[in-house]
Design goal:
Protein name: TTL11 polyglutamylase
CATH topology of one domain: D-amino Acid Aminotransferase, Chain A, domain 1
Mean pLDDT: 84
GO biological process, one term: microtubule cytoskeleton organization
CATH superfamily of one domain: ATP-grasp fold, B domain
Organism: Pachycephala philippinensis (yellow-belllied whistler)
Bound molecules: adenosine-5'-diphosphate
Largest sheet: 8 strands, antiparallel
Number of strands: 21
Keywords: ATP-binding, Ligase, Nucleotide-binding
Number of helices: 16
GO molecular function, one term: ATP binding
CATH class of one domain: Alpha Beta
Structural class: alpha+beta
Radius of gyration: 27 Å
Low-confidence stretches: 339-405
């Protein structure tokens, strides 16, 4: 909109990030702060916090250290592990923060090989354990790009695309040795790198070549007897757990950009999950991409420097379905259509309603406009199945009533079935206990005070301690101030952001520190849970008292 947008839209489709502060309604395809939240360092920090709390649940993310600040920690841990097992011969991968497409990535065998000269100070990085035994197909290493729709943050709603892409290396894989460490076509699966190898195969088929559908790999694995059902369920759990790790930070950004109670849009976002399968078929998370490429063509070099765009059937197969179904799921018209459903009273003589326990409340399709509570004219069911609004059960309409005139087709009817599968809240029960940092973030946001900030000032921190009654003779308010200053100063020295104050991760660290102090003997996640419950309880009581005083 070079001249500015005149009318409000139902859906705003931004190219890179959430950046438009003039949107007051509708839906935006980006969450505020998503780009920052999935950067390599921020993701590693969020995963580390979850690994500290739930080491077994979060063992799908390789052990990582942040450079330069954790270089000495990395060196110490390396030597400790080497001392305890001299046969351990690890490889590490160093990835610059904010890099993409394999840019600046290199492999090392020893911490002394980290390239500290100049750039590392200005360009922080993550050093990570290298997965040496990936699953190979046709002797080649490959990774999986899966598309995930974060449809809503509050309440959390996650969908996963049933198919994804498998991106192949172009040189046969060998476990890393000093001789082959630098061979990017053997170790890095990035499309943007391998496309430059003479061995890259563009294929018109989805199950051959250097880029294939993930479903074609699954078919192949299944034909060899692999348990692909278990693999899918491990992938689903990896995706849900990763998003649970990201939501606290996202919520802080959200309340800052779209304050509660003021008109604003809602957000959704398509994310690209990069996953590596180990030989054992265990999926490992490599990274999350906030702006996954949605291109359905590739470039072919006709002569040096002259390119043409050629359709890519594999990309088309996977990506068109993702975009189409995202639009179907967030479709504002669908919501309007749903709102026109009417609730009718069905007379008892309708035999087919028979023994259902809630006679009276039925949702019927929008073309059957039946006056609410009309008991004179029974609705003519044109569906073979109807939905009870109260208990959400689907009831079959018996044969006799199917003779009724055919209903007009809904626009959805012409489309293929959804490729996006809901996984949250569907599996919420299994993962609810992991959402501890979310609750810590809710406390943080509560004390942020002035809307529009992402950092807690010293007064906000003191109020949190006072309202939650966390200070006592062993932990004076002076000690509270020292804790605030110590942790905040350290976090701010690592950040390039100008806004002063305590960021969420610093607050989480302070919270864990308080939890350890109070509940010494418990495992960390129980210490944190106990403190959360104590804080929530006290704030609840305080809120209750305020309400009573207000009424009085
Ligand atoms: P980028 O954003 O630059 O693509 P990635 O984290 O995706 O960075 O890493 C690039 C490639 O390096 C991946 O596609 C994968 O092939 C390889 N890779 C990354 N991390 C690991 C790891 N821990 N173990 C094995 N291979 C890895």
């Amino acid at each position: 909109f070079p001249l500015g947008r005149r009318l409000p839209c139902d859906i705003y489709w931004h190219g890179v990030s959430f950046h438009d502060s003039n949107i007051f309604s509708g839906q935006v395809n980006k969450f505020p702060g998503m780009m920052e939240t999935v950067r390599k360092i921020t993701l590693s920090r969020a995963m580390r916090t979850m690994q500290d709390l739930f080491p077994v649940d979060y063992n799908f993310y390789p052990r990582s250290w942040i450079l330069p600040e954790e270089l000495s920690l990395f060196v110490d841990e390396f030597h400790r592990m080497k001392d305890s097992d001299p046969s351990w011969k690890p490889t590490f991968i160093v990835k610059p923060d904010g890099g993409c497409q394999g840019d600046g990535i290199y492999l090392i065998k020893d911490p002394s090989d980290v390239r500290l000269t100049g750039s590392i100070q200005s360009r922080p990085a993550v050093v990570q354990e290298y997965i040496c035994k990936p699953l190979l197909v046709d002797k080649l290493k490959f990774d999986i790009r899966l598309y995930v729709l974060l449809k809503s943050l509050e309440p959390l709603e996650i969908y996963i695309a049933k198919d994804g892409l498998s991106r192949f290396c172009t040189e046969p894989y060998q476990e890393p040795t000093l001789k082959n460490l630098h061979q990017v076509f053997m170790h890095l699966t990035n499309y943007s790198l391998n496309i430059h190898s003479g061995n890259f195969i563009h294929s018109d088929s989805v199950n051959t070549g250097s880029k294939r559908t993930f479903s074609s790999i699954l078919c192949r694995l299944s034909s060899k007897g692999a348990d692909v059902k278990k693999l899918w369920s491990d992938i689903i759990s990896l995706v849900i757990k990763t998003i649970i790790a990201l939501t606290p930070e996202l919520k802080v950004y959200y309340q800052s950009d779209i304050p509660a109670g003021k008109p604003g849009p809602t957000c959704f976002q398509i994310l690209g999950f990069d996953i590596l399968l180990m030989k054992s078929l265990k999926p490992m998370l490599l990274e999350v991409n906030a702006n996954p490429s949605m291109r359905i063509e590739h470039e072919r070099e006709l002569s040096p420097g002259v390119f043409e765009h050629v359709p890519s059937p594999v990309d088309k197969e996977v990506k068109v379905a993702v975009i189409r179904d995202t639009l179907r799921l967030v479709d504002p018209q669908k919501k309007k259509r749903k709102d026109t459903h009417c609730i009718v009273t069905v007379p008892p003589k309708q035999q087919w309603l028979g023994a259902h326990k809630h006679p009276g409340l039925w949702e019927v399709s929008p073309w059957q406009r039946v006056d609410e509570m009309s008991s004179e004219v029974p609705p003519k069911p044109t569906l073979s199945v109807i939905l009870c609004c109260r208990c959400q059960s689907l009831l079959q309409v018996p044969e006799a009533s199917k003779e009724l005139p055919e209903a007009p087709k809904s626009p959805e009817a012409a489309l293929p079935s959804l490729c996006l599968k809901q996984v949250f809240p569907k599996y919420a029960q299994q993962f609810g206990h992991l959402r501890l940092v979310d609750r810590v973030a809710a406390l943080f946001i509560r004390f942020l005070g002035v809307k529009g900030t992402t950092k807690l000032g010293p007064t906000g921190f003191r109020t949190f301690i006072r309202n939650c009654k966390l200070s006592n003779s062993n932990f004076s308010m002076a000690a509270v101030d020292i804790l605030y200053i110590d942790i905040t100063r350290r976090w701010n020295s690592m950040s390039i952001e100008k806004e002063s104050g305590m960021c969420l991760q610093a607050f989480v660290e302070a919270f864990f520190c308080l939890a350890r102090k109070r509940y010494k003997t418990l495992p960390l996640h129980e210490q944190v849970l106990s403190l959360i419950e104590a804080c929530e309880g006290r704030l609840g009581t305080l809120h209750g008292k305020r309400l009573v005083c207000g009424c009085g």
